[in-house]
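Q: What structure does this chain adopt?
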Amino acid sequence: METQQARDVPEDADVLRADSLAREIFSGVANKWALLLINVLGTRTLRFTELRTEVEGISHKMLTQTLRGLERDGVVHRTVYATVPPRVEYRLTEAGEALRDTVNGMCAWTRRYLDEIEAARRRFAARDGDAAGR
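A:
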């Protein structure tokens, strides 16, 4: 059953369509590095090396790729200053700030349900181990 709301959605924004631009955007902003960078940039403008320090475990290459994707999608604004060496800063755009509200909600959800998720994973691993042993 199709709802009125679904019929009014432009094809590129329809997340259920395989060729939807929305799905491409999801893949760019809904990964762990993008979510962490959006969270960190929500507090202030940061330089590349500051971002790498703030987000433990991210490689130089992954930070570069993720920032480029977020910039391409209009979530992050990159400012280059003509200094020697060049200074580059990153900040969230208006769209990025709006997305940060969603990211913060996901972070709050994770903190709230972390114990339950860990317990579910233990139960799953134990059950999966039992099934593999049969």
